[in-house]
Design a protein that fits this description.
The protein is mostly helical. It is built from 9 helices and no strands.
């Protein structure tokens, strides 16, 4: 049952990224063509003409073919924001971490190891998993008459470190996607900006009177792509730093709880 659950989770995680990007691109294309490019956003009901005065949707449509890519990036960013938020919320478990750790320490002081393990099963989350691994080893080592005290303490530390190592990938999963979006969003926006400026200068370089439509289209393309690129990058940086802070806080609590458990075990062995 456990192996099947882990296998299913691994398959889902491997499929999540491509599915998220594909769905984001489909949504972005529909937004670009059906919403931004709707005829009512333009003069004469033709999206090849000028946007209506003050119509931001039509103006964004004039950003060109780079706009759907940038919208895809923003939608992907939103998907992974909620994915990280849900995952990190589940990692905390059911009760507040400080209350949970305090209860486990109280049970440990009263030598109620089995009750503490049951509390970990009820709490769930990364911290509970690490403590459960340590508590399970705690009872086994407590009854072991062959190992020396130093060997028992080393074994306890190893059990906690191994459990922590298994939980860290869950905490940091998909963070690289947020950092990648923070980097490439503004760069893709700059590509669209350069393309728009090229078109604008090409319109100015025409012999005789410049093509006002081509000139305005080029400038719109440049400005819209810049705005989209900076927006996506800014949001990605904010989300990445926020989640990184949450992860650092969780890891600190895990390390603190593991250290406390090891110290308690060392004291009991000394007795």
């Amino acid at each position: 049952m456990s192996k099947q659950t882990k296998s299913s989770s691994g398959v889902w995680q491997s499929l999540f990224a491509p599915l998220a990007i594909i769905l984001a691109f489909i949504a972005a294309y529909l937004i670009f063509t059906q919403w931004l490019g709707a005829p009512e956003n333009f003069e004469g009901g033709n999206n090849k003409g000028h946007p209506l005065q003050g119509n931001l949707l039509g103006l964004m449509y004039k950003g060109g073919t780079i706009v759907p890519i940038l919208i895809t990036i923003v939608i992907t960013l939103i998907i992974y924001f909620f994915e990280r938020l849900i995952t990190l919320t589940r990692v905390k478990g059911k009760a507040r971490l400080n209350v949970f750790v305090s209860n486990v320490q109280q049970m440990l002081a009263e030598d109620r190891i089995e009750d503490a393990i049951a509390a970990c099963d009820k709490q769930k989350g990364s911290l509970a998993s690490v403590l459960k691994a340590g508590l399970s080893r705690y009872r086994a080592l407590e009854n072991d008459k062959e190992l020396e005290k130093d060997q028992k303490i080393t074994s306890m530390k190893q059990a906690i470190e191994e459990a922590t190592a298994l939980e860290l990938p869950v905490l940091s999963r998909n963070m690289v996607i947020l950092s990648t979006i923070a980097s490439i969003s503004v760069l893709i926006g700059l590509i669209g900006t350069v393309i728009g400026m090229i078109r604008a200068f090409a319109a100015l370089a025409q012999s005789g009177a410049p093509d006002a439509l081509a000139l305005s289209t080029g400038i719109s393309e440049a400005l819209v792509n810049t705005a989209f690129g900076i927006t996506g990058s800014t949001l990605a940086i904010i989300f990445f730093n926020w989640f990184s802070t949450m992860i650092d806080s969780y890891v600190f609590k895990i390390d603190e709880a593991g250290f406390s458990l090891t110290q308690t075990f060392a004291a009991s062995v000394r007795k």
